[in-house]
Write a structure and sequence with these properties.
Helix 1 (61-74) crosses helix 3 (100-120), helix 3 crosses helix 11 and helix 5 (152-161) packs across helix 6. The chain is an alpha/beta fold and 365 residues long. Strand 8 (248-250), helix 9 (257-265) and strand 9 form a beta-alpha-beta unit. The protein contains 13 helices and twelve strands. It folds into two domains: 8-122 and 358-362, Enolase-like, N-terminal domain (Enolase-like, domain 1); 128-343, TIM Barrel, CATH 3.20.20.120.
Length: 365
């Protein structure tokens, strides 16, 4: 079936605030509330593309929602060609820079545009992109924050059982190294030696601490060590990657595909995990994944599991999908997890439809 030609009519962006079942407790921040922006991209032909953004900071909503509405007005009447809209939207923000909130707004537009086109073609996005519908290997990232080690045993088991997971992510960066080691020992004892465990420091260390702490866990069979230092210290990451045996994972703070190229040129990591709102949505992901694929670098995802599942089906060096169910409360039909796999539904586009009753209950005024 030929894809109908679509024309952008406008964008509706709605801010909501959800309560997290397991609050984020990291060294750099504690978050009990989770802000989101629900995006509806309207076309003259009656097809609506949907996507969402998760910008962490509630105060960012008051900047991003108007930015999305402005992009809708700016691009009104344009044909819905995601690559061209991506370029036009970025050019419109040239004088404020290609990173930060500007890129996040462009990413939201891009994801909704791809969804609309795939809906019009009556195909799941992964098939529209040239792949096939199928399961995607996932790890559970819904918990194991900086709680006391003795409280993590039951939580680790519960997280494993939420979807028969073969991988879990835990966070480190407690006051004492020995407390981090106790936490890892407790979790490993609870879920067994065959469970893949990823460790994330959430950028909480300076380079000296990172050298000490990463070497302390370097022989413990971890899947990867993630973001021990601030994301833009590529010289520090290059030193860590050269010294550690455990693969080093970075990338959730890459703003656009060129950041991927820069990090790989600097040999600053072994794995990458771009975030959709920063990498440039689906267009940015496809370009970034091509760079990683050419270099033979495994690519995992960060947040946005529904979008992630589709693009992982067409990513050459696809590795792990990060599973978090934080958007589930406002979705009519959340994606299913079984046997550690996220299963893409046979629905057009991304298959995202809002539960309007839940949206109304969480809408910010």
């Amino acid at each position: 079936m030929a894809t109908p030609s679509l024309t952008l009519r406008g964008i509706t962006a709605r801010p909501i605030l959800l309560k997290l079942k397991r609050p984020v407790v990291a060294r750099i921040a504690t978050l009990a509330d989770w802000p989101m922006i629900l995006i509806d991209l309207h076309t003259e032909e009656g097809i609506t593309g949907r996507a969402y953004l998760e910008p962490y900071a509630t105060q960012s909503l008051k900047y991003l929602v108007p930015a999305l509405h402005d992009l809708g007005q700016l691009l009104k009447g344009h044909k819905l060609a995601p690559l061209e809209l991506y370029a036009a939207a970025r050019r419109s923000l040239h004088f404020v820079g290609y990173q930060g909130l500007a890129m996040i707004a462009v990413s939201g537009l891009d994801m909704a545009a791809w969804d609309a086109l795939a809906r019009a073609a009556e195909m799941p996005l992964c098939r529209f992109l040239g792949g096939s519908v199928g399961p995607v290997k996932s790890y559970n990232s819904n918990g194991l924050w900086l709680s006391k080690p003795e409280t993590l045993v039951d939580e680790a088991i519960a997280l494993r059982e939420e979807g028969g997971f073969a991988g879990l992510k835990l966070r480190m960066g407690r006051t004492q190294v020995r407390e981090d080691l106790r936490a890892l020992e407790a979790i490993r004892g609870a879920v067994g030696k065959d469970m893949a465990l990823m460790v994330d420091f959430n950028q909480g260390l300076h380079l000296g601490e990172a050298l000490q702490r990463c070497h302390a866990i370097d022989d413990l069979g971890l899947e990867w060590i993630e973001e021990p230092i601030v994301y833009d210290n590529l010289d520090g990451y290059r030193q860590l990657a050269a010294e550690l045996k455990t693969p080093l994972q970075i990338g959730e703070n890459f703003y656009g595909p060129r950041d991927v190229h820069m990090a790989l040129q600097r040999q600053a990591c072994d794995f990458i995990m771009p975030d959709f709102m920063r990498i440039g949505g689906i267009t940015g992901w496809m370009r970034a994944a091509a760079i990683a694929g050419a270099a033979g670098i495994p690519v995992s995802t960060h947040l946005y599991p529904e979008v992630a599942a589709h693009v992982m089906r067409v990513t050459e060096t696809a590795h792990w999908l990060e599973w978090q169910d934080w958007a589930d409360p406002i979705l009519q039909q959340p994606y299913a997890i079984k046997d550690g796999m996220l299963h893409i539904p046979e629905r057009p586009g991304l298959g995202l439809d809002w539960d309007e009753t839940a949206v109304k209950a969480h809408l910010m005024q």
